[in-house]
Amino acid sequence: MTDRQCIPVDAHLSHDRRQLQISATLGTRLGLPCHGAVSTLDLQAAAAAPVVELVHGDTKYLVANRRLPFQGATNFRDAGGRRASNGAIVAWRQHYRSENLAKLTTADWDTIEELGVSLILDLRHPEESDLAPTKAPSNIKVVQIPIVGRLSGFSDATSALLTGKIVSIDDAAMVAMYLDLVSRHRQDLLEAFSLYRDSELPVLVHCTAGKDRTGIVVALWQLSQGVALREVLEDYSLSSLYRTLPRYLALQPDLLAAHVDPRRIHSYITTQRASLLGALDALGIALP
Q1: Which residue from 230, 219, 234 is spatially nearest to 283, judged by alpha carbons?
Q2: Which residue ranges make up each domain of the chain?
Q3: Where, if anywhere, are coiled coils annotated (predicted)?
Q4: For the whole prediction, is pTM greater than 0.85?
């Protein structure tokens, strides 16, 4: 069986971690039980990061949950499991991305160790990491590569928002921030990318929200693996799905107290593909 006959499938992991759920359309083809629009694949035992191989005809499906179930992080996910332009599958369970890890529980850290993560790349500047420290086990190496983007003239946009110094952030401001990141931290971004790419053991990269600085580094890695730009942008946009609502709910009381309308900073807590495309272009990445 060739790589071109192998297809990665993003699945949802059930709350009890005993089932993977996929679309009923694919499930029917594979002979799985259907429940409305969803098909379920029972696991032999509860697992946080299962990867299941299913074969139908001359096609092999690698089914896995992209988002990992953590109590203290909503945007911890697998950056692999994508199909490259040559038909090969970028491996699952080797490259991870996340928001900050400060709220991870003991059980969460146990899961990270089970994943085999040996290296964590922290892209936050020291003031960020001091406020929300990473308490990793001693057997996991943490490398800090401080990267700071100025947004509307402020290095700490969240503090500026909560003190009323910024009252609105639009898409154009986010594009400008990404370009500022590249302008001032080109070598840092490339260093993070190289460490992420070259790690022989499972590796995790994160910043504060896991969408901007982390998004650039992961995009560089995925492109280097031959993943199509369309899929790179799709992966980048998942941060809006997993991170935006929790972030909005956490900030809402303080924003209202600062008389900042949360609707006017929607661009800050979501992803804009134009921002990532601008950063990649500024880094000299040839885009189709």
Answers
A1: 219
A2: 94-282
A3: none
A4: yes
Residues 97 and 196 sit within 8 Å (Cβ to Cβ): no
Nearest to 265 by CA among 253, 251, 279, 276: 251
DSSP character string of 21-41: EEEHHHHHHHT--EETTEEEE
Euclidean distance between CA atoms 39 and 285, whole angstroms: 39
Classified by CATH at the fold level, domain 94-282 comes out as Protein-Tyrosine Phosphatase; Chain A (3.90.190)
Evaluated on CA atoms 112, 96, 44, 18, the torsion sign reads positive
Sign of the torsion formed by the C-alpha atoms of 209, 272, 181 and 229: positive
Decide if 129 contacts 108 (C-beta within 8 A).
no
> Which pLDDT tens digit goes with each residue over 30-81?
999 999 999 999 999 999 999 999 999 999 999 999 999 999 999 999 999 9
At 218, list the tokens.
């992961």
CA neighbor of 50 nearest in space, from 16, 74, 82:
16
